[in-house]
Amino acid sequence: MHVASHDLFNMKLRTCLDTGRIYVYLKSLGFTYMQFIPILETTDNKSMSIADYSVTAKSYGRFLCDLFDLWVDDFSEGRPSTAIRQFENYAAIYMGHESPECTERKRCGDYLVVEHNGDIFSCDFFVDDAWRLGAVNGDASLEQILNGKRQALFGELKTKLDKRCLRCPYLQFCYGGCPKDRLRSPSFRRFNPYCESVKMFFGYADNRFRELLRRQVARAPRSLRNRE
């Protein structure tokens, strides 16, 4: 029996520098729904310096550009043969929809994480005491926790943008990036450390991406094209 899966891959710097080999290898294993997250870690809680295996902005930007080329080359009869979540998110935004993933939305906090012991947290990247909201066997329901003040406060973290973000032509594709990265080190000053990556990618792929989507829309039945 075949079970469909959406496969998440965390990338260290070395992995990020070998896009083609990684992509081909994952395809050879049968993975067709892929998501890639760059690892960004600090060495310790005191110095908060970035670990040397963390993915840099330039390397991640180059990775996205190379991955885009590989993804486009794999189109069959005008349709993608692999699903890359990052590009699906961008496609939704290009088409005037909200991103399916919180990373590219204006705010986050619209889901909860339940750990193996029943503890409930604001996000899978914030499983720590500061953002523990309760437990499944507690007095509050999941609905109450999700719509509670603390989760609303968590969602507000993403909305506090640097002035540079407000002037950026690619704001709609990023909205400052994920808070887990912005808050990783005090040296970032709450600014997206992968800002350069986003700019690199859209500077490279924007026109081609728009043309791909234009062709997809042209191929769609008229009833779907006029659904809006």
Structure description:
The chain is mainly α. It has ten helices and six strands. It has a three-stranded parallel sheet with strand order 1-2-3. It has a three-stranded antiparallel sheet with strand order 4-5-6, with no helix packed on it. Helix 3 (57-73) links the parallel strand 2 and strand 3 (83-84). Helix 3 packs parallel to helix 9 (195-219). The model has no long low-confidence stretch (mean pLDDT 90).
Notable characteristics:
mainly alpha, 3-stranded parallel β-sheet, 10 helices, 40% helix
The unreliable regions are none
Instruction: Please state how the strands of the largest beta sheet are arranged side by side.
Output: 1-2-3
- Classify the secondary structure makeup into a structural class: mainly alpha
Q: State mean pLDDT (0 to 100 scale).
A: 90
Q: Let me know the largest β-sheet.
A: 3 strands, parallel
Tell how many strands the DSSP assignment holds. 6
Shape: globular
Our count of helices gives 10
Separation of termini? 38 Å
Strand residue content: 5-15%
Fraction of residues in helix = 25-40%
Give the SSE order as H and E letters: EHHEHEHEEEHHHHHH
Radius of gyration: 19 Å
